[in-house]
Amino acid sequence: MKVDAALNDFANAGAEARRLEQAGYAGGFTFEGPHDPFFPLVQACQTTERLDLYTAIAIAFARNPMILAHIGWDLQALSQGRFLLGLGSQIRPHIEKRFSMPWSHPAARMREMVLAIKEIWRCFRDGDRPDFRGEFYQHTLMTPMFNPGKNPYGDPPILIAGVGPRMTEVAGEAADGFFVHPLHTPRSLESLTLPAIERGLAKSGRVRGDFELSLQVMIASGSSEREIESTRRMTKQQIAFYGSTPAYAVVLESHGWGDLQPELNALSKRGRWAEMTELVSDEMLETIAICCPLDQVADRVRARCGAIADRVSLVAHWASDPEPWAEIARELGRARSSGAGSAR
């Protein structure tokens, strides 16, 4: 099980990525927030040698397959084969009102997006025209002037993020891996996520070993009781924020908490964030997040994720001291090197 960490410093992403590599992390990722997620990875390519570099995620529907194909091709070359293209759909209001792009049938659109990118990459390799004719995307033109040619490091893997069973199944069918959203539980993985991935893999004639599963796991921990209590409250805030999104209701429903989602959603629209946090019970917190002292985190992550995950990232971004988390990453990495806790 590989352990990854976020690249948060947009202006100094190269130095930050080098620190992650030196600390023993396997991967560093950016996300689509206040900055473009691809530019920091250009810096990171130049300062690292072993660190996997990826977007977790870039918003697919804010772009088109040709743009993403060129970006992925170039970052794969710059990183010498260490890039993973991570894509997510976002939700309708952001796509239509923030990006002014079309929204419809997100799972079907994402499937076409991934297949179109792969067809464009085939065109780059073979030197001919793409022939992709879908419902949402059509790519039938490529002149030599705009073809970058073969990539010496091959195609980068494409990973999709999602929560609902339809998007998860699309990942199994069309993509090379799947990002499990931080709002998940062992039960939701077993009852929703893994069966959907298997259905998708069956459609494409592949098996689990052909596919990479990445879990983001929320952690409420610390080196003292006071720090643990503080991180528990911050984690509850994160759960309340995620739980307010209608698309994520399936996770809550799998535990009989479905009635909470519309209540959280209504409060979020009124900006009543503190009240939302109070609605997250200790039972919910301890079911969704790993809650334990720091010296138990590695064992708990291994127990929860080791049998199914190829890579994990620990969502504990409120921690002030990065070194304990780096030691956890090293410990999990040592277990992987010795053959323990591997999903493959």
Describe this structure in words.
This protein has 14 helices and 12 strands. α6 crosses α7. The radius of gyration is 20 Å and the shape is globular. The chain has one domain: Luciferase-like domain (TIM Barrel), CATH 3.20.20.30. The strands form 2 sheets. Strands 1-2-3-5-8-9-10-12 form an 8-stranded parallel barrel, surrounded by 7 helices. It has a two-stranded antiparallel ribbon with strand order 6-7. It is an alpha/beta fold. Helix content is about 50%, strand content about 15%.
Helix and strand pattern: EHEHEEHEHHEEEHEHEHHHHHEHEH
Total number of helical segments? 14
Principal-axis shape equals: globular
CATH architecture classification name = Alpha-Beta Barrel
The CATH superfamily turns out to be: Luciferase-like domain
Percent strand equals 5-15%
Widest sheet: strand ordering: 1-2-3-5-8-9-10-12
CATH class designation: Alpha Beta
Span from first to last CA?
9 Å
Number of domains: 1
Low-confidence stretches: 340-344
- Based on secondary structure, the structural category is alpha/beta
Q: Gyration radius, to the nearest Å?
A: 20 Å
The largest pleated sheet is described as: 8 strands, parallel, barrel
Helix content: 40-55%
CATH topology: TIM Barrel
